[in-house]
Amino acid sequence: MRLTRHAPVKRWYAEDLIEFKESAQKGLGVFAKTNIPRGTRVISENALLEIDIKTVTLNSIVPAFEHLPPSQQKSYLELYGYAGELFKHFVEYETGKSWQELPEVHRKVLAIYAANAFGYVFFLGSRINHSCIPNVNFAYNPILREEVFHVIRDIVAGEELTVMYIDGTNLTQGQRQNELSRYGFQCTCPACEDTVQGRQRERKRAELAILDQELAATADDGTNESYRKRLQVVQKMSAIQKSEGLLNRQLRFVYYEAAKCCLKLKEQTMAYLWIEKIMEVDLYCVGKDHPEYRKMLTIAEVIRRAVSVPEPISEGTVEWFMKD
Ligand SMILES: [Zn+2]
């Protein structure tokens, strides 16, 4: 858990490109005012409440809120809250009190957390609704010390901006819905809809889920055989993710794995091609000012030289790349 900062609030959004308004079924949402090309940064802000949803205990949310300066408390309370039965049950279990026994303001703070925290709670970014095929990626930029939200495919005027609240690229619909239950809604995004197209998409997601398990089961044991096997699996995963429009940073993970395998197999030209793909994803998902993109630029340069000479890449360089 990172402690809540008291640095000045930084909050910026591309006013000429996006607007915040009511959506048909999902309350407030964020919409494109005009066509927006892939890679555009639309929001950059620091978090209102920095308690990671993966490590949070419900007892820590109210104290974290009370620790905020009054202006940030006011911003926080402007967000929409929703507490589902499951969430209330967790709260009751942890606090030892019934939901109704809790002070009203505590219920409100908790309900806002439940409805808005993906990663952390953001004043602007938390208003973006969820989709299992999102068109926006969010990531922390440690140099800016802000969360940046980038459009990851070209979107047209009027289209709703969406992010994936969960790490759900390689999960089936049932698994995704299970994870989403803490937000208290049933997902009706194009990947979850009960139509011919929706079911086709779901078959691809099920394939991804199986491949993801295969990858986990294929140990990286230092043999060429294991690297070949892992490479095959991630190649299939990247092809499905791309064809299904799953273009967020999970795609980077499989490209990264592919590049690692090629380096271990001493297939430097192929490694270079995968690194170019990583850089493409970084460029549109997080931007040129992100340290991971800068690191990739340096690595790409080392490998490009090794390919053109050709000379072997030192073990040190390979190990440096392997370090995530
Ligand atoms: Zn969905």
UniProtKB/TrEMBL annotation:
This is SET domain-containing protein. SUPFAM superfamilies: SET domain. Gene3D superfamilies: SET domain (2.170.270.10), Tetratricopeptide repeat domain (1.25.40.10). Signal peptide: none annotated. Residues 16-166 form the SET domain. SMART domains: SET.
